[in-house]
Amino acid sequence: MSDERFDVVVIGSGPGGYVCAIRAAQLGLKTACVEKDPTRGGTCLNVGCIPSKALLESSERFAMAQHHMAEHGVSVKDVALDLDTMMARKDRIVSELTSGVEMLFKKNKIASITGFGAIKAPGEVEVTADDGSTQTLKTDAIVIATGSVPVGLRGIEFDHDRIVDSTGALSFPEVPKHLVLVGAGVIGLELGSVWARLGSKVTVLEYQDRILPGVDGEIAKLAKRAFEKQGIEFVLGARVQSADVSGTTVDVSWNDKDDATHSIAGDRVLMAIGRRAYTDGLGLAELGVATDKRGRVDVDHDYQTSVPGVFAIGDAIKGPMLAHKAEDEGIALAELLAGREGHLNYDAIPGIVYTHPEVASVGKTEEELKEAGIPYKKGRFKYGANGRAKALGESDGLVKILAHGETDRILGCHIFGARAGDLIAEIALAVEFGASAEDVARSVHAHPTLAEVVREAALDVDRRALHK
Asked: Of 300, 312, 323, 407, which residue is 20 to 30 A from 62 by alpha carbon distance?
């Protein structure tokens, strides 16, 4: 392709990048999206959100068939795992969705360009193809939507076989006998759940004294108790020092809070301690784009960096590393670039852990409200008193709603239980609209549904739950 001029060039085709490109094109802007990998969709579609959820669903059904169908009066014999078929299903779903992004690009007349994009100057993106050839895209606006990559621990090298990151844990060739998981955050617990259901012994080593850092403390405790019942072992306060591979065994050494040294052996180790913004090779330092001490791009309220005409969204900037956060930032930015008002309420961004049961939250945790000195009241309601939960066999769960102590405005909601990720949408909408707990409590909820647990929690804010 010869040098060509665009209104917007987006670097990265993950959820933030491709959605930003689509919205920009919808608004009449001539748009290109540059992606270094052969398929579109970024980490989320290729090696993140989508394949992990496919495996979570498949492994949950396997566990149901193995352990829970009999209580429904369904006798299932000789349940067997076909891991190859399970992986093939996952890969098929990924392929369908990534090719779907390409179709959306064609539909919206977006130039989809494969190659590594680097910013050579304001308004200029140089794209280097795999064969070394280059082309320069001239543009009025450059959007950095390059996402994030896993981080490791100093002194421990990924060999992408025995010691893997989240990508490797999506494609083990066989079920590990003993999976040692470093990190009790969202990614680790989701993937640990997959392999635990499929038959692995799973041991989690976590540096902090709790699991799911950032999740409401009460909810995290309930989740830990449930995961332990599922056979997952937790070692908290563990500072991992080394991981040494010997044949098919990995010896992991860690120190406890008293600095005593311990070791554990597994046949696979998953390092899931977090992710960092991926801005390698973009040319940010040479261009003078400011970044923070964690390598994230500094932006103003309009997502513009310190260099005019260069913008950034998603995992490349501060905030939770969530696909839907990146998407909505991409939409808001596209609308700003088209001369409209872009909007994103960061207090109304939900977060979900797709374990079983699920963990979902939106807004402030109880710990955050206490630390900030904000007056609040809370309502709690357990799944066990809900008819639909009983019918589903999903009576283990809790909804907690936090409302302002004076205005009753909803400040946060935290759910542990079946389909929590779907239930949290109601409260995310309520937070977006500035609703009170009373508003939710007075809204009619269909019976029998799990959504009634949310309503009962809202009623309980004023101590008038009906079934408590």
From this structure: 323
